[in-house]
Amino acid sequence: MSASGGTKAIVAALSANLAIAVAKFVAFAFSGSSSMLAEGVHSLADSGNQALLLVGGKKAKREANDEHPFGYGRERYIYAFLVSIVLFSVGGMFALYEGYEKIKHPHEIEHWYWPIGVLVFAIIAESFSFRTAIIESNQTRGALSWTDFIRRAKAPELPVVLLEDFGALVGLVLALCGVGIALATGDGVWDGIGTLCIGILLIVIALVLAAETKSLLLGEGAGAESVAMIREAIVDGDTVTGVIHMRTLHLGPEELLVAAKIAVRHDDTAAEVARAIDAAEARIREAVPIARVIYLEPDIYSEAAAAAGPDPTQTPGGDPHPH
């Protein structure tokens, strides 16, 4: 995902949510609907979340320094994790509390046209925001399913916006159902039930976001396709005869660290090995442009050393083609 694509989706979602939040709070003031209050807080939390993503993206662009030699790329993961916390605490828990209070102390909805009109407007606005996120995601999603895209994406912004917009649309439908049934039956309990359902939905989405961003914070390696391309780029068949073992780590969504022990011939000179390493680094960056930090350690492959080790892929001089 490009940074510009993610920013476009975030700005679209932020603009929609700010307008929707104002409309929902106005509708709550006139109707007294707890679903509208919960949805208003939801939209306000979503607006704050998108602001957090924008701040994280800006902070991540800071240059590396002595204190942070690998830069600040993971700032984007930290702020995405904060989004899940805000969505859980402010959005989900508040909706659960408000739903419980409305079920315990129900009252009829006044001026029904306010919540109905605002919910229809909100569904239309959220649909445009969701459409923007889908279009931007499709540019990098490839053949992945939506579930796999959310699970495997290294850039957190689009998965966050996608899940937020999806949750917002489902929440609006739940609110519309709750308000509609409350109006049809004259029983305000249904408004509270709709609010409870919104709270449960937001908490589930928050937990999914927390799990995915936690994995990114802990450190994820490159995808299988990128790993295969890097391995192929390292080996030239002449000086570099194989990859003994290799590790990759995302320093940020668009920055990858590659560390590998490579096999060279025993009769190569130091100058030849140095030239081969420089050439291998150039091939890696051409094959996988986000591989910006590369460490290649030469070693002489030895079948005897490989056989002696408990794990050939971990043994210096071990198997250059581990399975």
From TrEMBL:
Where does the record place it?
A: Membrane
Please report the record's description of how this protein sits within the membrane.
Answer: Multi-pass membrane protein
Q: Where are the transmembrane segments?
A: 6-30, 77-97, 112-134, 160-183, 189-210
This protein's UniProt keywords: Membrane, Transmembrane, Transmembrane helix, Transport
Q: Which Pfam families match?
A: Cation_efflux
Per the database record, which ranges form the Cation efflux protein transmembrane domain? 11-218
Xref: PANTHER family: HUEL-CATION TRANSPORTER (PTHR13414), PROTON-COUPLED ZINC ANTIPORTER SLC30A9, MITOCHONDRIAL (PTHR13414:SF9)
What protein name applies here?
Cation diffusion facilitator family transporter
Biological source species: Streptomyces fildesensis
